[in-house]
Amino acid sequence: MKYDLIVVGGGPAGYVGAIRAAQLGKKVACVEKERAGGTCLNWGCIPTKSLLRNAEIYHVLRHRAGDYGFKFDNLSFDWQKVIGRSRGVADKLAGGVEFLFKKNKIDYLRGEAVVDGPGKVSYRGADGKAQNIEGQAILIATGAVARELPGLAVDGKTVVTSHDAMILDPRPERMIIIGAGAIGVEFAYFYNAYGTDVTLVEMLPNVLPVEDEEISKTLEKALTKQGIKIFTNTKVTKTESDGKRVRIGIEGAKAQTLEADCTIVAIGVIPLVPKMPEQINRDKRGYIQVDDRYQTTVPGIYAAGDVIGPPWLAHVASWEAIQAVEGLFTDHRPKKVTLFPGCTYCQPQVASAGLTERAAKDKGLKYRIGKFPFSASGKALAVGESEGYVKLIIGEPHGEILGAHIIGPEATELIAELTLAMSLEATYEEIEATIHAHPTLSEAVHEATGAAFNLAIHI
Amino acid sequence: MPITIEMPKLSDTMTEGTLVRWVKNVGDQVEIGDILAEVETDKATMEMEAFDEGILSEVFVQEGQKVEIGQKLALLLAPGEGKPSGEPGPAQKAEKAAPAGAVPKGGEAGQPPASAQGAQAAGAEDQREEKRSREEEKVGTTDGGQAPAKAAGAEDEQRVKASPLAKKLAAELKVDLSTISGTGPGGRIVQADVRQAGERAPAKAKQPEAAPPAAAPAPAKAPSAAPQPVAAAPEDKRIPLTGMRRAIATRLLEAKTTIPHFYLQADIDAEPMVKLRQELNATLEAAGQPKLTVNDFFLKATAQAATKVPQANASFDGDAVVQFANVQLACAVAVEDGLVTPVIRQAQTKSIGRISSEIKDLAGKARSKKLKPEDYQGGTITVSNLGGYGVEQFFAIINPPQSLIVSVGTIVKKPVVGGDGTIRAGQRITVGISCDHRVVDGAIGAQFLAELKKLLENPVLLLV
After folding, report:
1. pTM of the model
2. Which residues are within 8 A (CB) of B352 and not within 5 positions of it... i.e. 6 or more apart?
3. Which of residues 327-356 of B touch A (CB under 8 A)?
4. Does B171 touch chain A (CB under 8 A)?
5. Looking at the annotation, which residues of A are catalytic?
6. A281-328 pLDDT, tens per residue?
């Protein structure tokens, strides 16, 4: 039997691409070597959100119970259950993806795939027998894996990546996290909340280096206040692990050596490429190169998601896969990613879309800033989460939203309105003219547009 | 609650349509999906479906009338809503237009309103209530009574699908949004489209503003280079443009003036194809199957050559050349008052027999004006064949945004010099191709033509 599409990889790019192709009436196979759902669902976005929710609740109980009128004597937690809940959520969702495969009549094939050439894929199933399948088109969606630090071998115990960091047992007493991107910051928040002594080391000048500088500074202050030790502008010079303890030499404002039970290496990812024809070009960092239709340099073989390069985000990967598949099977002209939201789920949360203030400045754009603090939001005060603000970068003279940056409660949910506004090319006037429910956190978005023109009511 | 039905945009290029026939009559019950009327666009006559249910209480447009997109066509009322007893006369229509529960005010209801818009004014108070619950864009009915002309104008502006930023930018750059097509989701005009349009015609856009309005009654439509008006003698006929003629005029003028055309031509030995076709048709006829035409061979060969030379199956797109993965093969079909180019989808995957039956079907639909937008949009390369009229050779104008069109002449008996130097009677057919030099260079065009020649002179290749 010949498939219309063979998808290699069952993560957010792969499974979404496979389902969309099936929805378009195509016969689809999806080959996955581990478990449906990919990194996102099994070892990324989803299980970490479970851990972070635990941390949030524990943090509130530990530090702010009195504010809310709780009284107890012996607050304690069951670490195995913290991790267990996270794994349970991942298991449930992975099962959900398998159900969706069935529902859409997609052949879900387990095993490590080899792309043998245009239209040809083989894989070795659990029985060890090699199977050959053929398809009209192939979509490579194998994703990426954590990048390791040269000279510091990952052992899964004292030196770990995000993968093992979510199942560390027992919980380390002292931890060094190298890299303060979204992953590093989220783990820093999580372990710190549970009482681990966390040090966060970042080579660049700010935590969350891709975010707006002002937001990063605000977050750095908030995390420091929570007890996380943060070294920015700091290089790792020396690494040492004896399997029980790590010693990390750092050099920033001054040189020193840190010691901990465990270090998380969170310095980015590298593409995970299947065995495939040499004619498929890759860039110098190893990402598969694709054209405007997501086709690789070998006709009939397409690629989407983390394996074609940044931004490494599940929602971007899914979107790319849909573009590729619709371009393949319909008259749709695929688009490349230009606007996407980025989210970090520590507390306070950080979310953004579009240009940072610095980027707007560097591009020579004319803009004004609209900013509204959650401390002036009725809802934020009512729920007791008034840290942070909404910051909008509004283009002049037309008032389009160039960038939206939120730090604070539910920032990751609030960004959706602004991403939609930007995608529709709405200007501040459309947001301003839209009635926002009271009392909600979304009023802060509304007020931020007003604030750009000194028209915010509550500040 | 009254629902206004407006002239829908039934094709990408449509700006106005002619209401050919009302299928439903005033007083008829209309269900969602019912055919309300037939509308002639620039491309075809199409059936207009109802998206709401109700009773057709009023029509504002008579059969044969030409109407711009977004203009009001008819009014639907919910069953029982404001329905008076007896036959609807003009005065009762006024009541009907008002929503249920509307109390006609004083003299207003007694006087027959002068117009349909007037009718709605009677219920203006109550309709304002609905303004909140209904889509903003349909609010035109509410204000109709007070200022019909202005309301209609405002509504027209609303009808252009454009992002807020695009609208603001258009106002600044003096770009008329109704003249540009959008590249956003669902054809929405976005910032980039306006910027592009602004760059394309900055001089033209500024001209009307520069000219003193009083002194120039129609300068906007008549730039300095425009030809003198045609002096028509009394016996001459002046035929108003149909939508199709207007679309042909606009697109081909744009094509011929903005695309750098060049032309290549080759003589093809038609004998093998004529012979194979005779053999095939004898077999097909015996099997009771439809016969193949010479044009079918050219369509199949074009699809195959475009796959072999994909650079020819491409489009110039501002800052990039788009090379299409599929051959969406358009074929020019003459129809009454013009031509259309229906499209055979993914022609590279289809057999000559399938292509033959599809084009037969599409041409039939085209002649009876039954083509749907998806039947003629999105072509990537075109074949035009005038061989049936005895034309020996010609070069068609490229059909934008495509980059190549194949022009097929008639089969001509000619003296042919054989391989041994002797002259004999042979059959030849002349094929011309017109190429967009921005996309297709001479060598690529030549490769494409050579491939076409090879396929047609070895037509068995078109069957395997």
Report:
1. 0.59
2. B292, B296, B297, B299, B300, B462, B463
3. 328
4. no
5. 438
6. 999 999 999 999 999 999 999 999 999 999 999 999 999 999 999 999
